[in-house]
Amino acid sequence: MSLGLETYKIHEKIENEPETLGRISLNASGVYKVMHLDGTEVNAIPKQRDKTFLVGDWVVLNPQIDFDLIESQLPRYSTLNRLAGEGFHTEEKAAASNIDRLFICISMNKNFKSSRIKRYLYAFIKPEYQTALVLTKSDLNPDSLKLATQLSDDFKIPVFCTSSYSGTGIESLKSSILPGQTVSFYGNSGVGKSTLINAVAQKEVMTTKTISDKTDKGRHTTTSSRLIPIHDGDFILIDTPGVKSVGVSPNDLSLIFPEITTLAQKCRFHDCTHTQEPGCAVKAAISNGMLSQKVYQQYLELKKESQATKNYMAAKVAKKLTQKAKGKKETLRKKNYQKPLL
Ligand SMILES: Nc1nc2c(ncn2[C@@H]2O[C@H](COP(=O)(O)OP(=O)(O)OP(=O)(O)O)[C@@H](O)[C@H]2O)c(=O)[nH]1
Ligand SMILES: [Mg+2]
Ligand SMILES: [Zn+2]
Q1: pTM (2 decimals)?
Q2: In angstroms, what is the span from residue 209 Cα to ligand 2's centroid?
Q3: Can you give the pLDDT at residue 70?
């Protein structure tokens, strides 16, 4: 079993690897497991207690009786960062390392929006790994195939249309993964990442849970990243915990649509919404074919979403403040309470 070592050696130009090498296969809030090249998995403890690792890291091990000490970590050639934060995207958290391909999973249920994809691609197209889209649960949407073609035309990246239930697209997804590659799956909780991994692996390697198809709200079944060798380590999958849907801040919006930001500087009004104002450079660019109608629509959709997130966050803050004020009143009331004289 090579666990992707050959690929790693090519990237890092290593000829002879250290003898006791392993790959971090689980990180459950700082509790690690490591996989040896023969496929066995053991508990692992960092020699330096404050050192943290990512699933996918190559590490030098010092085997003990019933665990391995992690002596050191070899450099990473790629890192997958998850978008995280409450309301808006406020931080990035590393989730996996040394990956060659990333599959962004999007469920084909009725909440599907192509503007979201634009947002994901902005965050995840990186030179260190190849990115592709995976449309999951295609059995829920009769237009899935059509959408897949449209998305691959629009975004110029590979799109796989899959259903783990019917088996559609699983084989083509699997055969697109080259020997020795490490691939990771990313997406909102409940889109079906773990079910897809089980379908590709043809066995129950990941726990999945039933959710209501009505809301498609995941319950965060997978809570830690996990490395899974397929076909005796021919290629390696990394399942990552689902992310909450992260909102788009106005700042993200201008980064995702640089062409609109540039055009907006020429609008007559500085607070132009690019919808009906006179002298709008964005609308003018659409009329003369400089800006595509599709990109404009995606911009409006994400802008609406950004406003909705802003309102949601404002309402949440207001609720907290009211609760705080109520709490203060209550303490005051208690403080002023006098025991009745009997
Ligand atoms: N209709 C349909 N449902 C699916 C399909 N794949 C998965 N599901 C269902 O979607 C739900 C979530 O699947 P999971 O694989 O646990 O989702 P996940 O993305 O791993 O979720 P997290 O681990 O929380 O990030 C389960 O109820 C699955 O049965 C599919 O191809 N079609
Ligand atoms: Mg999962
Ligand atoms: Zn304008």
Answers
A1: 0.83
A2: 8
A3: 97
